[in-house]
Write the structure tokens for this entry.
Amino acid sequence: MSDLTNQPLSKLNIFSLKGVQMKTFHITWLTFFFCFFAWFGMAPLMKMAREQLELTKDQVGNIQIASVSATILARLLIGRLIDKYGPKIIYTWLLVLCAIPVILIGTSQSYLSFLIFRLAIGVIGASFVITQFHTSIMFAPNIKGTANATAGGFGNAGGGAANFFMPLIASGLTAVGLCTSADSWRYAMLFPGIMLLVCAFLYHRYTQDSPAGDFKNLDLAEKSKENTFLLAAKDYRTWILTIAYAACFGVEITVDNFAPIFFTDSFGATIAVAGMVAGIFGWINIFARPLGGVLADRIGKTWGFDGKTLLLASLLLVEGIGLIWFAKSGNIGMAIFMMFIFGLSLKMANGATYSLVPFINPKAVGSVAGIVGAGGNIGAMLIAFMFKAKASHLTKNVAGESANLHKDLIDYTSAFTLLGYIILAVGIAVFIFRTVMAQKQSQVEDLVLNPSK
């Protein structure tokens, strides 16, 4: 099969730009990269915004929750929309609309306005669903896991890049005299906003919905009549993967949001150092998430759906153990090392999850991707509430000035430890249900091959 045909590719060559499939692949992951960059652009700058706007710790917690909560509804909606209208037009509008709050958050003068803009920026997280749908439709079944995980991994690295580069951009703006140090976070956010508009142009100009062409030019009348969201929601495997994704991507979002403040408050790191350290976690995506997809595809060739699910369960178990160990680390060196270890298994689990998503229901890939993707943000939101609950409990029960100096570290220790045990439980549950899920998949594949049944 030639790379220039109108069929899904059965091979992924990341160094190729031949054919609409590979052009779409590269534009998709690059766009997703800047979406994540914009989504988490404020995370390493929160200390400056917190001080200038005089935000309390409770208000910062609400802002972090807002940054992931809007994505939940957005991912559910986007999944249905791309099934019906195609990814190109939906992605283009998402980028244009979300560029507005990214650019305008720098005008915030109060907690309320900052919270509203941060909530609106969270909608850009729905970009993940479009990315996974677009790579799923451009590549053949034998390589879907690898393609999805690679595009997702390269794109997720935008969160790490934001933690690394946004403090440098802010410092650079101050150094050349364009703004004061206190206002540098405001002007720095212009960069990701402008990049979203650039990506909107590239996406609309150089991609198409499928190898065969745009949805509007294809005969999809019969498909559009079906409610793909209900098709996805009625399959219990969708919800098992949703819970699994909450246990891996939900933790990733939490660390992306909280790590910079954690390292500054708990270990006394500077904003630049904390951003670079937290950036390590994000950069792992470049190879870890693709590795999860590659392993899943290879295991799937021999052991099928059951083998892929077993891989996912194993990675979740390793993640849970690593997270508990991370929580127990008493110094910044050990914390960084364990963040790398549990981050590696976590991001591989992300890739393994979305190697399974395209096979739940071929008629509702977008909706399945949207529901599972929303699960990641639901997990992040619940974790954020758990962190707040821990902080509130300690504030009421820990007295004394010396104790208060260490309460942030204690908060994270107890919260991350509990979170580790929860993930262990999810891993065990996926392990138990894997055989039933595989049997269901065999029935689905049999119906696809023999529709008369």
Q: What stands out?
A: The chain is about 80% helix and 0% strand. The chain has a mean pLDDT of 87. The CA atoms of residues 266 and 409 lie 5 Å apart.
